[in-house]
Amino acid sequence: PPADELAARRSRRRWLGPVVGTAAALALVLGAGVGMLLSDLYDRIEELETASGTMLEVLAAPDASTVTLEGPDGEVARVVHSPSRGEALFVADGMDPAPTDHAYELWLIGEDGARSVGLLDLDEGGRTVHRLQGDVQRAVAVGVTVEPEGGSPEPTTDPVMLLELSDA
Questions:
Q1: Which residues, including other chains, have CB under 8 Å from residue 84's CB and lie 6 or more apart?
Q2: Beta pairing partners, 161
Q3: Contact in structure between 76 and 70 (CB atoms under 8 Å)
Q4: Which of 65, 22, 26, 61 lies closest to 164, judged by CA?
Q5: With a threshold of 0.70, does the pTM exceed it?
Q6: CA–CA gap between residue 89 and residue 57 (Å, rounded)
């Protein structure tokens, strides 16, 4: 009878509204997430292109050399160094994340001591490329220390990595 048919239609409308609303909200959240992911991906690609261009310029220098350090847990760090250009790059792969409330800090080490050249920003694979700026020509080594989150004005721990440039 018609009353049963009308009740069935009303019942369908009762559950259809929330389902459609939930699906729309889910689509909106997924769309925003994909948008953020794409934005992060484009930023990372731009960083890598810049680093790759700089790396190629440093590698093309007539006096370019590479110092490599392989750690016991499979981590690999390299410094690509050109004294004539006064530039160097620190490249790492497979580094474990820094301990909680700490960060890895990168140092140019010369006869007059260590000077910070920034904190390392590792991706999920423990990879980073960091351009060393400053008085690279006078550096004899590049070191990585574990510092309090936000860094330190001078090293507070012994280096967990030390790459000597004098042998480069």
A1: 61, 62, 63
A2: 144
A3: yes
A4: 65
A5: no
A6: 11
pLDDT, tens only, 116-168:
999 999 999 999 999 887 778 888 999 999 999 999 999 999 999 999 986 44
Specify the residue for token string 């160097």: 88
Return the SS3 of 127. Answer: coil
Is the distance from CB of 130 to CB of 88 less than 8 angstroms? no
Are β-strands 87-93 and 141-148 bridged in parallel, bridged antiparallel, or unpaired?
Answer: unpaired
Tokens of 108: 């140019």
Nearest to 88 by CA among 6, 163, 154: 163
Question: Largest Cα–Cα distance of the chain, in whole Å?
Answer: 97
Q: Quote the CA–CA distance of 58 and 65 in Å, as a whole number.
A: 9
Kindly write down the DSSP assignment for every residue of 57-104, as one continuous string: HHHHSTT-EEEEEE-TTS-EEEEEEETTTTEEEEEEESPPPPPTTEEE
Q: How far is CA 93 from the centre of its chain?
A: 10
Q: Are strands 161-164 and 141-148 parallel, antiparallel or unpaired?
A: antiparallel
